[in-house]
Each structure stands twice: as structure tokens, then as C-alpha cells.
Design goal:
single chain, 345 residues, mainly alpha, globular
Length: 345
């Protein structure tokens, strides 16, 4: 992958993670100064980006089913297991008073460990379940992504006679809510397969035009407006979709993100000015998963457990904790890969 394109995607990844953090914590820090941070929209950006990167990784020379499984398992478990452990560790300190986006706080032991187990198996969002880990609502999207990895791996790497059975088995485990947003993830896959086909003279139009389209879709709450129309027709069905209830608008946003990525690919050398900020972008992006998966339980610990209510001090302490945990977990990916290789030997 060209360095400049990789850098642009890293920048998008980091900004999306920060947008999710601010979407959850800004109303708690600054309740009198609300800002419309694009939390759900940022997750859709993640899905398209994930589809692109997984397609890129899966089609590299020498990658087979075993390698694919090792790399995907290592990447997911390096952050999923610490995130679940974090929920357990902060539980004695966070009390039962909810903060913005904290989810339910008064879980009995059976419900608490049930959520942990469902999240460990990545079935917390399958079918009619809506079980995020305690104090960590953002984890829902990881349950979606794991089944997208499984379905794509089944299609690409399974022997021909087992391709459809393996794909259907993964789809059955995922359930309709997860499948409903699968087209968004597949837009990233399609973008990878279409790379290089956009004429260079269309690059600027695609890059900025689709970026503007995505911002307008978010600013005018098109997803919410479309969901509200569906609620009038199928209220009970839409309510059961939970995070997938915005699927029509998510498809539109996914198209905008994919179009922007196609434009970025076609820009080629014109993205090279980004190299001036390569080091800070690479550094920041290397903590994206940590920012995304650890910020809520840590924020609860700081707000409820330590009584740290100053927005500035809380943000600085949270950033330091995210850097520390990221260094201990997300940055230890080679260790997880070696462990996966030994486990699958």
C-alpha cells in the first residue's frame, strides 16, 4: 500500500476513534455546551475502513486460512481480552450511578457475568441479544466485526465445497442485526477491489465531493430521519435492531466513505504532503483500538470511582491511562501473533 494512502487511512482511523470518545464523554464533561460529535457515524467509517484493510491483508501473497485466522485472532484478542478484564477490574469502584453512555450500572452478578461471557464469545449482538460488556457500550461494534472477519475468511479461504456451508454457519451465528450492516463493511472490500480504476482526473472530485456528502449526511441527521420513518411503519422491528436501526442512512454514509477512499487512492502522490506529519499520525493511530475500547470503563473509574470531575484534568489523566494500557495491550500484537501460531501449530 502506498505510504501516503496508508497514512491517510491511519489519520481517518485515529480521528474516528476520538470522535467516538468525544461523543460519549463530552456531554458528561460539558453538559452546558453540547456539540454534535459523530459517534455512530464514526463507527460506520470504521466498518468501511475495516473492510478495506481486511481485504488488503487477506489477498497478500502467501496468506492462507491459517495465517488469516492467526492475524485476525491476535488483532481482536489483543484488545478484546483486556477490555473485558478492565470491566471486571473497575466494577468494585464505579458504583451504580450512571454517566452519559455508560449503559446499565446496577447489574446483578448473573447479568454481569452473562454480559462478559457473551462478549467473550462475540455473540452479544447476535439475533435478539443486545449485551455489551459492563460499562463498555462501544464494544458492540467489535461483535459485528468479528463475524464479518469470519464470513469473509470463509468465502476467501474455505475449500470450494465448504465455502457456502462455512459462510452460512458464520451468518447464522451473527444473526440479522449484524448482517444488516454487512453491506457497509463490504463497501470497504469493494473499494479495495476497485482500487486504481478511478481516473486520476476524477480523484479530487471523489475525495472532496464524497467527504462533503458524508459530512452533510451526518449534519442533517439523515440516518435518524430515515429511521424515524421506518419506526412509523415497523415500530417493534426497528426497536429490536438497536445499533443497526440506522441502516439505510448507514448505507448512504458508507457509500460516501468508500467514495472518499477511492478518491484518496486515485490522488496518489498528491497525498504526499501528509508525510510531514507522519510520525505523530502513526503514533496516534497505533492507539486507536485502545481509545475506542477502553475509554468508557476508564472514564467511569475516574468520574465515579476517583471523583475526578474537572474536564481538563480528567481528559489528561484519561489520555495517560489510554497510552499506558495501549502500550501494554495493543502494542503487544507480536506476542499475540506468536501465541496464536503456537496454538494453531
Amino acid at each position: 500500500m502506498p505510504v501516503s494512502l496508508s497514512l491517510y487511512l491511519d489519520l481517518v482511523r485515529f480521528l474516528a476513534a476520538v470522535a467516538v470518545l468525544l461523543f460519549h464523554l463530552w456531554p458528561q464533561w460539558f453538559p452546558g455546551f453540547p456539540l454534535p460529535w459523530p459517534g455512530h457515524a464514526a463507527v460506520i467509517v470504521f466498518f468501511v475502513l475495516s473492510g478495506y484493510m481486511i481485504a488488503h491483508a487477506a489477498h497478500q501473497p502467501g496468506v492462507d486460512l491459517r495465517t488469516y485466522l492467526q492475524h485476525r485472532a491476535a488483532r481482536v484478542l489483543s484488545v478484546a481480552l483486556p477490555a473485558l478484564l478492565l470491566s471486571v477490574l473497575v466494577a468494585p469502584f464505579v458504583g451504580t450511578t450512571p454517566i452519559h453512555s455508560s449503559g446499565p450500572m446496577d447489574l446483578d452478578p448473573a447479568a454481569f457475568w452473562g454480559r462478559i461471557l457473551a462478549s467473550l464469545l462475540f455473540i452479544g449482538q447476535s439475533w435478539n441479544l443486545a449485551l455489551a460488556p459492563p460499562y463498555n457500550q462501544p464494544y458492540w461494534s467489535l461483535c459485528y466485526e468479528v463475524w464479518y472477519y469470519a464470513m469473509y475468511g470463509a468465502w476467501v479461504f474455505a475449500p470450494r465445497r465448504w465455502r457456502w456451508p462455512a459462510l452460512l454457519l458464520a451468518a447464522l451465528c451473527a444473526g440479522p442485526k449484524i448482517l444488516l450492516l454487512a453491506p457497509v463493511w463490504l463497501m470497504g472490500v469493494a473499494t479495495w477491489h476497485l482500487r486504481g480504476r478511478l481516473p486520476a482526473n476524477m480523484a479530487v472530485l471523489f475525495f472532496f465531493g464524497f467527504m462533503a456528502a458524508g459530512l452533510l449526511l451526518f449534519w442533517f441527521d439523515v440516518s435518524v430521519l430515515l429511521r424515524n420513518q421506518l419506526i412509523r411503519v415497523w415500530p417493534q422491528v426497528v426497536q429490536q435492531l438497536n445499533e443497526s436501526a440506522l441502516f439505510i442512512g448507514d448505507y448512504l454514509l458508507g457509500i460516501a466513505v468508500a467514495g472518499n477512499f477511492l478518491g484518496a487512492i486515485a490522488l496518489g502522490e498528491r497525498l504526499r504532503p501528509l508525510l510531514r506529519i507522519e510520525r505523530p499520525v502513526r503514533f496516534a493511530a497505533s492507539y486507536s483500538f485502545s481509545i475506542y475500547l477502553y475509554h468508557m470503563p476508564l472514564a467511569l473509574l475516574l468520574w465515579n470511582g476517583f471523583g475526578l470531575r474537572s474536564p481538563l484534568v480528567s481528559a489528561l489523566v484519561l489520555a495517560a491511562m489510554l497510552l499506558g494500557l495501549g502500550r501494554l495491550t495493543e502494542h503487544q500484537l507480536p506476542l499475540y501473533r506468536r501465541a496464536m501460531r503456537r496454538a494453531m501449530a
